[in-house]
Automatic annotation (TrEMBL):
Lineage, highest ranks first: Bacteria, Bacillati, Bacillota, Bacilli, Bacillales
Its membrane topology: Multi-pass membrane protein
Protein name from the UniProt record: AEC family transporter
A Pfam cross-reference name: Mem_trans
Residues that span the membrane, as ranges: 6-22, 34-55, 61-82, 94-111, 123-145, 165-181, 193-214, 226-246, 252-271, 283-302
Domain of life per record: Bacteria
Locations listed in the record: Membrane
InterPro entries: Mem_transp_PIN-like
Length: 303
């Protein structure tokens, strides 16, 4: 138990450091864009390569992909129903943020610190299903309800997915592993060195993007959104935790996976589709705080 608490404490310190650096103007929030590109295009793919190059798939791992995908589709439908009476752009903005999780930036550094590469493998499989939601469904919802002229064709959606280096690294690495194709030892060792930077950089970036201010007019919509996202996530996660007959790591992945923060992809989509980017940023920040507290409670009272 103490190792879990130590990991959360170290994470809080690094996040707080990132926030402090921003508040004291040593780092600007816009600097986070460059750091984000380093994480998603270098350190995170390196971590995925190290964790998945020798993976052996079993039923539980494949089921995590299905859960991540199916749950996202269900939540998309729930969001459309719950927010159906909202004005069109508000409905699109809220519904777009209901499905999809922030796994790469938020979950991986905590999971790596607590469970190591085994945890990354389980959450990575869940993330694979989640990727189809983040780069497919969320984009479709955002484009459909927006006033912009963004294209909704299959080519555009496919490009969204293939341009994600972490997602393509998942696909290629798992294919190589299943085909029993050996990778050069130098490549694995180099990736291992680079992957070490993923956890601190990701936590620093969370701190840089953290923001505690929001307009009071947002409060009602925020409360509705949080109720939809977390009440369903907690009930569904607890139900699958109890009912599914797999190992503890699988159960923890599902339980924690369904209460993770909203996807960071909502921010660039909000810009592309002319939604209220300040609202989207506020909600995304709040889900990070709520999910962090929920993970700490699960780590102390369930795991």
């Amino acid at each position: 138990m103490s190792s879990f608490n130590h990991q959360f404490l170290y994470s809080i310190i690094i996040i707080a450091l990132g926030y402090l650096l921003k508040r004291t103007n040593f780092i600007k929030e816009r600097d986070g864009e460059g750091l984000s590109r380093i994480i998603f295009n270098l350190t995170l793919p390196a971590l995925i390569l190290v964790s998945f190059h020798d993976i052996t798939l079993d039923t539980s791992l494949v089921l995590l992909i299905i859960i991540g995908l199916v749950y996202g589709l269900i939540m998309g439908a729930v969001g459309i129903f719950i927010f159906r009476k909202q004005e069109q752009t508000t409905k699109g903005m809220l519904t777009m943020m209901v499905p999809g999780f922030n796994i790469g930036l938020f979950a991986y550094p905590l999971v790596e610190g607590i469970w190591g590469s085994k945890g990354i493998q389980y959450f990575g499989m869940f993330d694979m299903g989640n990727a189809f939601i983040v780069f497919g469904l969320i984009y479709v919802i955002g484009a459909y309800y927006s006033d912009s002229s963004s294209s909704l064709d299959v080519r555009t959606i496919s490009r969204q997915m293939t341009q994600s280096i972490p997602f393509m690294t998942f696909i290629v690495t798992i294919f190589i592993s299943l085909a029993s194709i050996p990778l050069p030892e130098a490549l694995i060792e180099t990736a291992n060195i680079i992957s070490v930077a993923n956890m601190p950089l990701s936590l620093l970036l969370l701190g840089i993007y953290l923001n505690f201010t929001f307009e009071k007019g947002y409060l009602k919509l925020i409360m509705q959104y949080m109720a939809v996202r977390y009440l369903i996530g907690i009930v569904a996660g607890a139900g699958l935790f109890i009912l599914l007959p797999f190992n503890d790591m699988f159960k923890y992945t599902v339980l924690i996976g369904l209460i993770l923060p909203s996807s960071m992809s909502a921010l660039p989509y909000a810009v592309e589709f002319n939604y209220d980017r300040r609202f989207v940023g506020t909600v995304t920040n709040m889900t990070i705080i709520i999910s962090f507290l929920l993970m700490w409670l699960i780590a102390n009272f369930v795991i």
